[in-house]
Amino acid sequence: MTQRISVASIDPERLRGVIGDERADRFGATAQDVRQAIGDRVVLSMNSTASGGGVAEMLPQMLGYARGAGVDARWSVLDGNPDFFAVTKRLHNMLHGSAGDGGSLHGPERDAYERVLADASADLDAELAAGDIAVLHDPQTLGLAPRLRRRGVRVVWRCHVGSTTTDEHTEQAWQFLEPYFDHVDRFVFSVETFAPGAVAADEVTIIPPSLDPLAAKNRPLSDGDVRDVLAHCGLVQGSTGGPVRIRGDGPPVDVRRRADLVQLGPPPPPDAPLVVQVSRWDRLKDMEGVLQGFADHVADLDDVHLVLAGPNVSGVADDPEATAELQRCIDLWRTLPHERRARVHLACLPVADRDENAVIVNALQRAATVVTQKSLAEGFGLTVAEAMWKGRPVVASAVGGIPSQIDDGDSGLLLQDPTDLAGFGHLVRRCLDTGVSGPIGRAAADRASTFLPDLQLERWASVVRAVLG
After folding, report:
1. Count of beta carbons in the 10 Å neighbourhood of residue 197
2. Which range has the worst mean pLDDT, 66-70, 310-314, 318-322, 395-399?
3. Which residue stretches of 178-242 are H helix?
4. Which residues constitute the domain of residue 35?
5. Residues 287 and 206 reside in one and the same domain
6. Element of type H or E holding 307
7. In 3D, which of 133, 53, 57 has the Cα closest to residue 85?
8. What are the distances in angstroms from CA 255 to CA 220, 238, 258, 358?
């Protein structure tokens, strides 16, 4: 019921050229301190998917740097079933303040949840010993805490989702999860207001997610590489004659697969202004709202195109609603007038190879004139910081952890009401003006430098000290 995922070691020293000597030296001292504290203990991170979500994207880099610092950091993925993922998706939606599919969280749902976790716990007997540290990510894995604690494992729960306000849905989700809290040594949230009242403040550490500036998703790409990758995938017009190999910083990455596209006519010209949102096909990411807002309030501008890009829906095991959400976007796209439909492109990106997917997203964000993240609710929204790192102006909803990334009017533009499609269109039109987008993009890149791995791992050092006493 669990799958071990290989994690390559990454030398933290390679960040020196990006973060500078002072931060690099401090990072090295912190790493030595943590390595001595942990000794020969295992630190195992567990989540519910190896691809297609923000956690799956962050873990290889975070754990890779930890391994490079000498920590025995490992990664395992929980192998659930449809009933289990239906319950955990419901929890995910409710923690964001949404009713989701409208289902309940009572006896049968807890039984479905705990059956999978009981089997997974048996798998971990050979992986973890007393004194080791388990970092459980999000609601899918929290139910493992009692079984791990009984074996003497130190447990950290890292919750990436939540809401800055409470309602009946958030209360119901927290009530489902609360019985497991007593078995957790330390809680980690992305935003302080995500922590529920049932968790003592002195047991909480706030750690914003980080991006790896040298990973395939964020490393520098030449204009030619961007053009070739997008042309090969069918996301802009052009021909490369075959697969594209990306060289430069880091190992080479081959882009062989193409995106699955829904569009009318050819893809955008390579020099067309692009409005881009890259998200999971999830109702709370509001891809439909982006589509409608663009069609009604932006598409009348000359040459501008919208690309809505998400993962291939067959490649994300823990999201049973993705196919239906993609279909809703397609149905809405079909209702658009012909001339506006031709400006909207829906793209399912390949996820079979993690680095290939990352390079495609990297190229798409770098090609964007404006990047949007018009979520109705959001955990942290690392796609915002990723686009900012690339110097892109971002229009995003003022929800969840997004306002902690963007200084409104300086390093991006915040939409106070995510349902305000006219307001969304107005902000996008502002960012299409090069006189506005240039200064915002430069400020965005500077702001994103505060979301890099060295600062995140320094915060994790305080968690390790806390759980080890």
Report:
1. 10
2. 318-322
3. 223-233
4. 2-210+452-468
5. no
6. strand 305-311
7. 53
8. 16, 15, 8, 10
